[in-house]
Design brief:
There is one protein chain. This protein has 186 residues and is an alpha+beta fold. It folds into two domains: 3-27 and 107-184, Ribosome-recycling factor (Topoisomerase I, Chain A, domain 4); 35-102, Gyrase A, domain 2 (2-Layer Sandwich), CATH 3.30.1360.40. It contains four helices and six strands.
Length: 186
């Protein structure tokens, strides 16, 4: 392992944290219907738990409505039960061919709860970025101890890892702030 290897490994790990953050923030409700809203729903499909998006087409025909059309129509009751069990705060209704989910507008209290949830998710991801920094710094210190790099190289490496950490922490803050504004916008 070398200084370059440590620095090259650090950035993709931090980018993975940002991708995970984007996915988790996409699952937080904003008062508008999105396909990602149902990502957490798992249906008991012929005895095995299956993600909803792998057994039905999910669409957003209008801003306050999601439609779910299972490919196997006999599974509509199971899909409906799974949506209710997921406790998403929506009430499914079906017409025998598809399930409609009207998305109710968020009240002020619920918006504040969701903004707080976004803040918590952002904090978890900042900690994850710092953990990547910590492991990279440990690797650099190990290289110095094994005399694979000089003290100057170690100092340079620690500075570069810190710069990456700062930029990715800023990205986490920006994404969280943008999501909070989206939630609080009426």
């Amino acid at each position: 392992m070398s200084l370059d290897t440590v620095l090259k490994d650090t950035k993709p790990k931090m980018e993975a944290v940002i991708e995970d953050l984007k996915r988790k923030l996409g699952n937080v409700r904003t008062g508008r219907a999105t396909v990602g809203f149902l990502d957490s729903v798992v249906v008991e499909y012929y005895g095995s738990p299956t993600p909803l998006n792998q057994m039905a087409s999910v669409a957003v025909p209008e801003p306050q409505m999601i439609t779910v059309q299972p490919w196997d129509i006999s599974q509509i009751p199971a899909v409906e039960r799974a949506i209710i069990a997921a406790n998403l705060g929506v009430n499914p209704s079906n017409d025998g061919k598809m399930i409609r989910l009207p998305i109710p507008p968020l009240n002020e209290e619920r918006r504040k709860q969701l903004a707080k949830q976004v803040h918590e998710i952002a904090e978890e991801h900042k900690v994850a970025v710092r953990n990547v920094r910590h492991s990279s710094n440990d690797a650099l210190k190990r290289l110095l101890k094994d005399k694979a790099i000089s003290e100057d190289d170690e100092r340079y490496g620690l500075d570069e890892v810190q710069k990456l950490t700062n930029s990715f922490t800023t990205k986490v803050d920006e994404l969280a702030k943008s999501k909070e504004q989206e939630i609080m916008h009426v």
